[in-house]
Amino acid sequence: MQSQALNLKDGTNLDLASFSTTWLKSEPPCAASYLFPPSLPSHDTHLQNLHKSHPQIRDPRIFYLSRGMKIPCSFCTCFSATVEEQTKHEKPEEDNDGNFRIFTYRELYSATRGFHPSEKVGEGGFGSVYKGQLRDGSLVAVKVLSIELDSLRGEKEFVAELSTLANIKHQNLVILRGCCVEAAHRYIVYDYMENNSLRHTFLDSEQSRMRFSWEARRGVSIGVASVLAFLHEELKPHIVHRDIKSSNVLLDRNFTPKVSDFGLAKLLRDEKSYISTQVAGTLGYVAPDYASSGHLTRKSDVYSFGVLLLEIVSGQRVVDAHQVMERFIVERVWAAYEANDVLRMVDPVLNSNFPVEEAKRFLIVGLCCVQETARLRPRMPEVVDMLSNNFDIGDFSISRPGFVDDLRNARMRRQMNSSEESSATAATFGDSSGWSTSNLAR
């Protein structure tokens, strides 16, 4: 076959004989993306406008290659079939129940206005979150995973795990809408929550805290406790959240709490049964036992919830950088408890408009959850019961809480200890592990 040259408007020269042969041997989406790379989002709008003005054209990209060009019939047939095949691949996919979708990068790029900084609504341990609006007008939250690609599961496993997580339903879980797995892109799409996170909406200022009555705080506390009890006890196998904190508790238009980022540890290539050389979590919320061993358990979540509960009742941040003494909320509440004056920790913006005994019970339940010894902490179903029902706290015994006071140093020392273990220069973890953890004993 004689070589036939095709000159495109941008000056590109294509050898049709060799190009069509190569194209037929390759996968259609790859060939089509050669001419129309998905990294050029500006093409989308232009192609849509062209389609409106020429509705008879099934795919507007044919327009460019057919007008003013004499193209061999075999090439046009090959091209048309390839574009049609690519269209199938670009169309968002859904699972059988229609809840979980595979989004294209172009969709998410367009929805977030090119991941514009003004659309950024949050940032967590797994990545940044952007507000987006899909073509049907629905709002979504797009999480851009910041984890290295090599650390994540392969594409099929990644999608399978997320699809499984999307089928986990609870009134206090954020709905997982889908994901994007094109090339190096790894994005997760959730329902958008109108009232942002508990950290942003509740703890932003004294004025924002005034919007949260005691009834609202009770509802948020029991809601989060209920969904953790569900993840820990009702699911088989159970899920440990590993990063419970105020910024991972989102609020819908009715201020119903919705926990996000659940199960994301399952996306990692090597979970090692929740044992990690780099402890994940946020300073103030990380359980000391998790910090000292690297072993994540359900009791680690219980500790984090206890900190969150103290935060909700008191209206105080977990870590107060302005405090020289008692920087951590567990320190401040424990000091009030020892002084037999725990009610002084109730948020003053409530102006005494709260049930005294219930507020006291919530604070004591919070202290139960943050005890340094993990086995002494209650299970989450027990926490739900204690928060929902009256129980006698008169003779309730609570041991001192523990906390991690330097997470950066803790992570470094944990990695050092792991290296020492692997080289057989150190054999045990424990008090000599070098972790910067504290007990509140005076």
From TrEMBL:
Residues 430-442 have a biased composition (Polar residues). It comes from the Eukaryota. ATP binds at K143. One of its GO terms (cellular component) is membrane. One of its GO terms (molecular function) is ATP binding. It is a single-pass membrane protein. Residues 418-428 have a biased composition (Low complexity). PANTHER family: CYSTEINE-RICH RECEPTOR-LIKE PROTEIN KINASE 3. This is Cold-responsive protein kinase 1. It comes from Mucuna pruriens.
